[in-house]
C-alpha cells in the first residue's frame, strides 16, 4: 500500500493547531463550525474552510452536539422494605363493573406488604379523596390493634 503524499494545500500542523484553538475559544464553544466560519469571515479572519473545521473536530473526536445539554441526575426509585407484619401497607383502587351499563364501583384494598394479607377493603360508588384517606382503617385497625400513624403506607402506581 503506497503512503499518501501530503496534499499541497493541506494545513500545516501549526495552522491546524491555530484553527482548533479558535474553535475552542469560549465564544465559539457552543456554535456549529458553519457559524464559527461565518463569524470569523465577518471579522476578516480566515484560517480554513468550514469543511476543514469539521475534519479537525472529527480528528479530535469533537464532532457532536456542541450546545450545553441538560444533564439529568440519576434518579433512584424509593425502596420500602418491610421486615415484619404490619410495618408497611400498600393500597390500590380498582374499578368494578356495576349492575347497569356505565355504572362502576371503586374497590379500595389495603395489603400488608410483608405477609401480602388483605388488612382492609371498602367498596364505594365513586372515587373520593376523603374515602381514600380513610381507606381500610376500620378493618385493619380494629382487628390488628394498630395505630395508623405507626404505619408506613405506599400507594400503587397503576
Task: Write structural notes for this entry.
- The chain is α+β, with helices and mostly antiparallel strands and 158 residues long.
- Helices cover 28% and strands 19% of the residues.
- It is built from five helices and four strands.
- The protein has a four-stranded mixed beta sheet.
- It starts with 12 loop residues before the first helix and ends with a strand.
- About 4% of the residues have low confidence.
Q: What would you say about this model in short?
A:
The longest helix has 11 residues. The chain contains five helices and four strands; from the N terminus they run H-H-H-E-E-E-H-H-E. About 4% of the residues have low confidence.
Distance from N terminus to C terminus (CA atoms, Å) equals 64 Å
Beta-strand percentage range = 15-25%
Instruction: Average the pLDDT over all residues and give the rounded result.
Output: 80
Low-confidence stretches: 138-143
Structural class: alpha+beta
- Number of separate helices: 5
Number of strands: 4
Could you give the order of strands across the largest sheet? 3-2-1-4
Count of individual domains: 2
- Percentage of residues in helical conformation: 25-40%
Tell me, what's the shape? elongated
Radius of gyration using CA atoms only: 34 Å
What is the element string, with H for helices and E for strands?
A: HHHEEEHHE
Question: Largest sheet at a glance?
Answer: 4 strands, mixed
Q: What keyword list fits this structure?
A:
four-stranded mixed β-sheet; elongated; 2 domains; 158 residues
Topology, please?
Layout: H1 13-23, H2 33-42, H3 50-59, E1 88-97, E2 104-112, E3 118-124, H4 129-133, H5 137-144, E4 152-155
Parallel strand pairs: 1-4
Antiparallel strand pairs: 1-2, 2-3
Amino acid at each position: 500500500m503506497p503512503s499518501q503524499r501530503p496534499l499541497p494545500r493541506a494545513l500545516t500542523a501549526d495552522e491546524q493547531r491555530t484553527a482548533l484553538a479558535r474553535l475552542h475559544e469560549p465564544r465559539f464553544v457552543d456554535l456549529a463550525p458553519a457559524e464559527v466560519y461565518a463569524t470569523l469571515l465577518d471579522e476578516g479572519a480566515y484560517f480554513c474552510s468550514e469543511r476543514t473545521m469539521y475534519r479537525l473536530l472529527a480528528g479530535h473526536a469533537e464532532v457532536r452536539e456542541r450546545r450545553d445539554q441538560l444533564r439529568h441526575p440519576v434518579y433512584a426509585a424509593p425502596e420500602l422494605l418491610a421486615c415484619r407484619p404490619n410495618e408497611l401497607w400498600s393500597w390500590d383502587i380498582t374499578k368494578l363493573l356495576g349492575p347497569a351499563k356505565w355504572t362502576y364501583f371503586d374497590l379500595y384494598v389495603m395489603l400488608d406488604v410483608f405477609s401480602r394479607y388483605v388488612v382492609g377493603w371498602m367498596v364505594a360508588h365513586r372515587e373520593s379523596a376523603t374515602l381514600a384517606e380513610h381507606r381500610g382503617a376500620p378493618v385493619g385497625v380494629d382487628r390488628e390493634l394498630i395505630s395508623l400513624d405507626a404505619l408506613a403506607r405506599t400507594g400503587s402506581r397503576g
